[in-house]
Amino acid sequence: MSTIEIIGGKHLYGEVSIQGSKNAVLPILAASLLNKGVTKLNNCPKILDVINMIKILEHLGALIIWDLDSLIIDTSNLTTTVVPEQYVKEMRSSIIVLGSLLARQKEVTITYPGGCSIGARPIDLHLSALKQLGVEVLEEDDNLICKAEKIVGTEITLEFPSVGATENTLLAAVLAEGVTTIKNAAKEPEIVELCCFLNSLGAKITGIGKDEIIVQGVEKLHDTTYTLIADRIVAGTYLAAVQGAGGKVTLRDIDDSQLGAILSILRTTGSRITSGNDFIQIKANRRPKAADIIRTKPYPYFPTDMQSQMLSVLSLAKGTSIMIENIFEARYKTVHELIKMGADITVEGKVAIIKGVKKLYGANVNASDLRGGAGLVIAGLMAEGLTVVNNPIYIERGYEDICRDLAILSADVKKV
Ligand SMILES: CC(=O)N[C@H]1[C@@H](OP(=O)(O)OP(=O)(O)OC[C@H]2O[C@@H](n3ccc(=O)[nH]c3=O)[C@H](O)[C@@H]2O)O[C@H](CO)[C@@H](O)[C@@H]1O
Ligand SMILES: C=C(OP(=O)(O)O)C(=O)O
Question: 22: CA distance to ligand 1 center in Å?
Answer without folding.
Answer: 14
